[in-house]
Amino acid sequence: GAVVSQHPSRVICKSGTSVKIECRSLDFQATTMFWYRQFPKQSLMLMATSNEGSKATYEQGVEKDKFLINHASLTLSTLTVTSAHPEDSSFYICSASAYTEAFFGQGTRLTVV
Amino acid sequence: GENVEQHPSTLSVQEGDSAVIKCTYSDSASNYFPWYKQELGKRPQLIIDIRSNVGEKKDQRIAVTLNKTAKHFSLHITETQPEDSAVYFCAALLTGANNLFFGTGTRLTVIP
To answer: What's the pLDDT score for residue A98?
Structure first.
């Protein structure tokens, strides 16, 4: 199946700093990528839909100025958590769609200290 | 939009027994229903899917059934093994949309 690579897999940062997470589709072009946040023992919460060459569409309640999404090419989308705080600590997962099937990145465990 | 409900939230079965996880969806325009297995700290992996023109699909020990009239679909795992222990998510895709709506997940524990 298609491969989606997400980097880094783990990151620890200080409160107030920014963290960038990359999501790459390695063997197909993804015009749309999705960013999810997953709290412990909970489902995947869609944060935003990232469209290549245009602004991301954010779900209700997600701060677009805090979670900056860039989708500059058909194979790369980035999520930047700006001015991170401990409550931003979570598991972030990207996915890209090829036809109807979704392929997930490995996820990024963000810990803000 | 679509609303997907999933039950039960936790399920424990003895090794060798069957496990059934059920999901309902709200929008009759949904036409694709995948199931994902997520092991701790890892990405969700697609294990089986079904489209709205099919009522049942089977892949070895895993099967999925779909009742379009009732708007529900179920995952069936037979002869469960300890390695089946994980969190399982159902999802639904609306026709014409490209984002999945996920259920809340079921933590399956297979007791050896």
So the answer is: 66
